[in-house]
Amino acid sequence: MPAKKLEFKNGQYVVYPTQGVGKIVRIEQQVIGGQKMSLVVIDFERNHMTLRVPLERAEVSGLRPLVSAKKMNDAIESAKGKAGAKRMIWSRRAAVYEENINSGDPMKLAEVVRDLQRRDAADVMTFSGRQLYLRALERMAQEFAILNKIDIEEASVKIEDLLGVPKEIDLNAVEEEEEDEPEEET
Fold first, then answer.
1. What residues pair up with 168 in beta bridges, in sequence order?
2. What is the pLDDT of residues 37-66, one digit of tens each?
3. Do 47 and 21 touch, CB atoms closer than 8 A?
4. Which of 112, 144, 150, 145 is nearest to 131 (CA)?
5. Is the pTM higher than 0.90?
6. What is the C-alpha to C-alpha distance for residues 47 and 49, in angstroms, rounded to an integer?
7. Which residue of 39, 85, 96, 180 pairs with 52 in a disulfide if CB–CB is 3.0 to 4.6 A?
8. How far, rounded to the nearest angstrom, does the alpha carbon of residue 80 sit from its chain's CA centroid?
9. Apex 50 CA angle, 49 and 54, nearest 5
10. So what's the pLDDT on residue 42?
11. Domain boundaries in the chain?
């Protein structure tokens, strides 16, 4: 059975695995190396980048339409699960997490978020673990935001609320001391 050919149109939101969510600006014809090619022009506003993907290579490159709301909810449910086994050394696990983030697959992104999220306020994350977690969360939030018509920051907060991730403790916060009132002379 032949694979269904992906169809794209102007204004459609799509996911490019290594960049996240972008919007198709146009489909244009260009002559490259003496051959006329159709290119999908995608604007990644958040990254300030425009990408041109040959239409006949779109599927191979991993370019895809947004997932359905149901599939996104399934991914979030998956992220609520128990963290995966941590038997590999960190550098190998980090490489696997990086691959999952760059796959663009919501279920693989959810796996990274699930494994790296803080379970309670006392949990401490390494710098590299936190960076991977935030990248995976942002990629999930990009699609979640478009599907729910909210901005990305709000989507990140909503996803973390759904997962029950404890709120950050502001380590820079300083309690204000009460000022002593001058004593009145009698």
1. none
2. 999 999 998 889 999 999 988 889 999 999
3. no
4. 112
5. no
6. 5
7. 39
8. 16
9. 140
10. 95
11. 13-65, 69-163
Q: What is the CATH number of domain 69-163?
A: 1.20.58.1290
* DSSP three-state, residue 116: helix
> Which long-range CB contacts under 8 A does 3-12 form with residues at least 24 apart?
3/59, 5/59, 6/58, 6/59, 6/63, 6/64, 6/65, 8/40, 8/55, 8/58, 8/63, 8/65, 12/65
Q: How far is CA 9 from the centre of its chain?
A: 23
User: 1-26 burial, b if ≥16 CB within 10 A, otherwise e?
Assistant: eeeeeeebeeeebbbbbebbbbebee
135-163: pLDDT as tens digits = 999 999 999 999 999 999 999 999 999 98
In total, the chain counts a number of residues equal to: 186
Domain 13-65 has CATH 2.40.10.170: yes
Q: Tell me which DSSP letter residue 57 carries.
A: G
Compute the half-sphere exposure of residue 45: CA atoms within 13 Å on the CB side of its CA. Answer: 9
